[in-house]
Every structure is written in structure tokens, then in C-alpha cells.
Please model this.
Amino acid sequence: MEKNLLLPALPGEMLAHLETPCIVIDMDQTRKNIRKMQDMADGAGCALRPHIKTHKMGLFARMQIEAGAKGITCAKISEAEVMAAAGIDDIFVAYPLAGEFRFRRAAELGKKLRRLILGVDSIPGARALNAAAAEAGVRFEVRMEIDTGARRTGISQERMIDLARYITEQPCLDLTGIYTFKSLVYRGAATTDAALAAQEEGEYMAAVAERLAEAGIPVTDISAGSTPTAAGVAGTELVTEIRPGTYIFNDYMLYREGAASTGEISAFFYATVVSTPEKGYAVIDGGTKTFPMDIMLNTPPYHYPSYAVVDGREDLVLTRMNEEHGMLTALKGDTGLEPGQILRLIPIHICTAINMQNRVYLYDNGILTVQNVDARGMLA
Model:
């Protein structure tokens, strides 16, 4: 890891005010992260529509809009409802809708917003969405999701013309764009080369838009770009919009992917040592309720060593947890820790980490405040 680039830890007198385990967000660095991505997008002539999955808070969505973002992206209707209540009026739900309750809520939400865009990736999905719109007496603006190699949601290249044509035939659906989530995939396989992945992403989406136009189905919006590929795909000038999310706080994953420096990480765990049964390991007050486990340890290509990285003590690894216990093992044989010590840890993946917190601390100009995580646990 880069040395001497981490943000200064909280002043000692403030540590006593933390109720650990918790997350503390450095607001000054967060503002810099927001500005950097916005400036990049503006310089490339590309709209920025950040995904709120990382922060899940109206405060930060408003900061992104005020900095110049076109709108925001959500994954779930419930998240979009929270963001609408926070004053955001241009929202893209980049996730295929299914279920009558979601359709009803989308129809109601659309009446409150200046713009609501919904994702579609199948004929059954489009059929159900159109029927729900007709019943509610509304029209839905939709984008068709394209699979560009992540093999998650999204229509395949072989079937996309049929789906696009079907959508345009529906009286209550307006197909205005296409979108994808590709991340670090190149030629259908995981890659560590963000530039190659981004170039392929831009070219692929531009080719899709061209094929649609040739079929008589022109689209206005071409949306792509996760944080690792955002700058690269915007730089291709082949897409009209990017939807990065993690950039606002950054994390160890983005550092290893080369998308951020450690100095650009602005959200950290704080945890207290509660027990030191043996010199070789210590127990902290955060376990699986605190630290995400959505990454595989010690596997290629990045070989993450721990579920969180202890700041300044890379010889301590967090590889074993129970619900309330996190066991730090000393690679050098002695933790040197004592009960009562407070440690700062770098999140591997900050998006899932934030979702495990009811509230976070904001550190701003020497002042520590508490902020609720507004859209935490919004599953529907």
C-alpha cells in the first residue's frame, strides 16, 4: 500500500465520542471526490448520473446534484422513494422491475418527479410494465439494459433488436436509451486493465445504438460506466452518460483496481478492541454485522488479505468473524493490542459496508456529527 497517504485519523479527543463499531466519513475528502468525478465528466462532455448505492443518503445525493450531476441512479424503487423525499427529482432505477407492487409504486413515484426512468431487459418485463402503466393511466420512460459481459441482468446482443422493437410497440412505454453495467470485464472475462475494459464498453454500447438505429429504433441516451471504467468510457465519447457510485468515498477495492489512491478514501471503520485472549490474536467489537463478506479472500486477481485493512497495521488480518466478534490475527505472532484501544480500518467494499449501518459519523472542519443512512435496507 502507498505510504503516508492516508487521511489523518480523528483527533484523540474525538475518539471517545464514537460509539463503535461505526463508520466515519471525512467530508472534506468526500467533496474533493465529488468534484473530481464531476470535472472529469464535464471535461469529456458526458452527463454524470451517480449511483446512490454507495452512500444511500439524501445529503450526499444533493451534494452530487449541486456539483453538476444530471440526476441519480438507484437499484430499487424503495431507494428512489427515499431519494425523492430528499428532494431529488430526476431518478433512473437501473434494475429490471418485476412484481405488481413495484409497478404500482413506480407509477405513484413518477407522478412526483420531473423525470423517472425505469430499466427493462425482457419481453415479459416490458409486457407487465406496459400493462401496469395502462392501468395507472401513465407512461413510463424506459431504457433497455444490455449485457456487455458481466453476465448479470441485461439482454443479449442476439435478442436485443426483438426486445427493442417490442418495447416501441407498447403504447405506454417510451424507449429513450440503453444502459449497461460492465465494470472490469474484457472479452467476456475479468480483467485488471480498466482502460481496455472501458474502451470495449464504449465501443460495444455505440455499436448497439447503431444497430438499433439501423433497425429504425433510435435512442437518445447511452448510459454506462462504473467507477473503475467511468473516466475511460466517458473519454471514448461514445456514451452520453456514466453512472459511477463508489467514487464518492472510494475503498480498498478501488485502490487495488487502480481507480483511486489511498489518500482519496474518505470513509473508514472504527472498532474497539474488547479482548486479547492470546498474544497472537485480538477480538474487536465488529463482526459480520459490521464488516461485509461479499468478497473472496486471497483469490485472484487482487488477493484481498482481510475483510478490512487495519490502518497502519497490515500485519493484522481480519479473516474470521462471528456476528459480534471480529478476530484479528497477527501475522508476526503478536498483536500488541490491549482492550479499550480503538482501531481505524479501511473498508474493502464501502457500498455494502454503509448498508450495514443505521447511522454514520460525519467529520467536517473539526466537528463530528451523526447522519442517518436514509436508504439502508431498502430491498423492494
